[in-house]
Each structure stands twice: as structure tokens, then as C-alpha cells.
Known about the structure:
By secondary structure, the protein is mainly β. It has helices at 4-11, 128-133, 176-179, 442-446, and strands spanning 24-34, 44-49, 55-61, 66-72, 81-83, 107-112, 118-123, 138-143, 152-161, 188-191, 198-201, 206-213, 220-224, 230-234, 237-242, 248-251, 256-262, 270-275, 283-290, 321-329, 348-350, 367-370, 374-381, 387-391, 396-401, 404-405, 411-412, 414-417, 422-428, 433-439, 450-456.
Amino acid sequence: xxxxxxxxxxxxxxxxxxxxxxxxxxxxxxxxxxxxxxxxxxxxxxxxxxxxxxxxxxxxxxxxxxxxxxxxxxxxxxxxxxxxxxxxxxxxxxxxxxxxxxxxxxxxxxxxxxxxxxxxxxxxxxxxxxxxxxxxxxxxxxxxxxxxxxxxxxxxxxxxxxxxxxxxxxxxxxxxxxxxxxxxxxxxxxxxxxxxxxxxxxxxxxxxxxxxxxxxxxxxxxxxxxxxxxxxxxxxxxxxxxxxxxxxxxxxxxxxxxxxxxxxxxxxxxxxxxxxxxxxxxxxxxxxxxxxxxxxxxxxxxxxxxxxxxxxxxxxxxxxxxxxxxxxxxxxxxxxxxxxxxxxxxxxxxxxxxxxxxxxxxxxxxxxxxxxxxxxxxxxxxxxxxxxxxxxxxxxxxxxxxxxxxxxxxxxxxxxxxxxxxxxxxxxxxxxxxxxxxxxxxxxxxxxxxxxxxxxxxxxxxx
Length: 463
Ligand code: C2O
Ligand code: CU
Ligand code: CU
């Protein structure tokens, strides 16, 4: 006699396990230690959420109020930003702009109701370069009311570390030379807090993988040797399920991609997952290691992969106002920067202005947008470098790249803009507040590739 779940597996999928979501959480921020390079090597001193790197994966339910208490046990101010969640400005976690910083020994209660299901993440927005670079990041999963049927789900929170030979984090956060180039790229890539060796899989199973790039600066292009990942969501937002061009998943810092992977490999074999964003520095991130069991099913499942829609407001493209944002600066492109001499702490600018560090409350917004209106942001990259450009508090539709329409109905909160590329995105300015817009290569952000957009009602007093 088959057990109930084995019976179900033969017919189709195991029933999705009961939701592990919980709407109230408490996380402590403090120094800790993490065995990044495995149990036989010395542990690394880190800054951690609840003592683990990455922080605990928070699972919550879509459309239901969430409360998360954050206790700051660091010796410096911190905040938590819920990256990608459309929430009220006061919960956005930008110190001095959307909230007062959480002082050492103090706490803050974040409360919001996530409107969208999907893969999000959380990280500090205070001294971000060092706090994120020392380990403060975690996954935030907003569960769909009816998930796509898969056999298993994995979350890969990918981080990049610059470790010294003794296993400790190298100093020197905020090196201006690096900030004007690709940022602080590390030498050790971890998945869920350890340098991975293998990901055990079973032939024939269908797995959803939530990929999260929580690195400071490393852009990745992942290829699953011998497999055909289907992209079902980008930055948490469902897209038309599609196989990416050349099978490459391009993942800049802060970006997420949900894939569905049918394990079509042979039992007992291993297949590499390769990051070849930089062809010369390509490396094997991890191996899918098949167990010896015969395939669970002979043919990939026919079950549909389309995720349920999120309640995103559709921009009115005919009425949308165009705002051009020119990304300037960096090595080999100081034009528009007023030259090295006047740079100071800024190596980058947007429309010739640079907000640096954690941001500056006194600085005027780059643009003021009218609440409820549709906008097209034209991100024109005048630099020689890649920039994952992120807008807080909204998701935007990625319309076109260099004028060519972007297929598959892609929405995002962080869009990777290639050197000299122009990307148009559209959104409805439906969330009032001063919202950060910045590059998520953290050194670029803190060295000037940052601004705020003010969204306010026509009748509002603040100018
Ligand atoms: Cu992921 Cu301004 O943040
Ligand atoms: Cu964000
Ligand atoms: Cu950048």
C-alpha cells in the first residue's frame, strides 16, 4: 500500500505542504560568527540577523498585516529595508528620510501589509556597504494564495564576500577607486551562508528555485548545464513563463529570479551551475547532484507554470509623462561630473547631482511626481559600467531596451542597465513619499548614484 503522499506523487505533485507563514516576527541584529567556508575552516566574524547568515527566511501571507520587531544589538545605527515590498513610506527603512535610525540598544516595529506575493529580501539601509557586506541580509517570501504546483521549493540567497586567507572579512569598505569601477567584488560566493558544493536533486522532480542576489556588487549570469530553467517571476513579480536567452539568468545585486526547473538529468550524474557573467572569471557556483533513484516521472510535468497575478496598477502609457535620468560618472566617464577635483565623496551622479552615503534628508528630490499619474522613467547609462537601478516602494514594468520592446511582460523593482544602454520603465506613482532611487551596486549607491523621487498629491503642501 502506498502512503498518501507517494500516491499523490505518482499521479502528479505532492500537495504543497501547509504554509509555514507567520505574520509576526522578531529579529535581533548583532555580531556573530558564521561557518561560511565549511565546518573545517575557521568561522568568520559577521554581523547577523538572529545570529545566522543569511538572516532567517521570513515567510508571510499575501495581503495580511505583518509585524516585525527589530532589536538593534550593533554598536551603530541600523534600519531594515524590505526590498521590493510596496509599503507605506514610514516602513521603508531609510534612515533620516523615511524613519529615524534605530539606535544601538533600541528597537523598531515594522508593520505593513504586503500586497504582492513573491520573492523579496531585507537588508539594512544604514552604513549599507559595511552592514550588508558583513552579512546583514535575508529572504522575505510572500506566499501566493495558490502556489504553482512543484515537488519542492528552494531559496538560494547568494552572497559575495571578500575574505582574507584567515577567513575573516577584509577591511576597506568604501574604497573610492573601487567605487568608481565595479564596486567591492568579493572572492567567496555563498549560497544560504556556505560555500556550496552540491545541491542534491532527484531525477524527474520539478523544483522551484527562488534566486536572490544579495551581493554588494557582484553581477551574476547563471547557466544550468544540461537544464532549461523557466523564468516565472522577476523581482517577485510574475512574468510570462519563458526560457531566457542563451539559458543565462542575469542577476544583478538585489535582483531576484524565480525559476522552475525540471530535473531532466540522469540519475547519479552531476551538472554544474556556472556563473559566466565575466567570461574570464567564470566559476562553478554549485553542482546539481542527482541521486541514484530512477526518475520520478518520465516526462516533464504538463502542469502550468504561470503564477497568479499581483494587484499592480497598470501604467497608462498614452498619458504617461517621460522623465529622463542620465547615469553619469565612474572611471572612463567622468563627463558630467565636474572632474575628479570636485568629486569629493562622489564618483557618480544622476542628472549631474550626487546623493552619497546613506542619503541626505535636506537634498531636494530629483523629481516631484504627481500622485496617481503614470510615468516613464528613461534610464540612460552614460557610463562604462553596469548598474542595477532600484526604485523603492514601487514595481515598474520594463518596457524597452535601446528602443526594442522587452518581451514576456516583465516587471521589476531593480533593472540592470548595461554600459551605454537606455532602458525605459513605466509605473504608476501611487505611493506617496520620498522614495529612494539608486544603483544597487552598493559602492555606486553610496558614492553618488542615488537620488529621491518625491510623490505627492496635487493639493499637498510640501514642495
Ligand atoms: Cu535594496 Cu535602497 O535597497
Ligand atoms: Cu528597496
Ligand atoms: Cu551602479
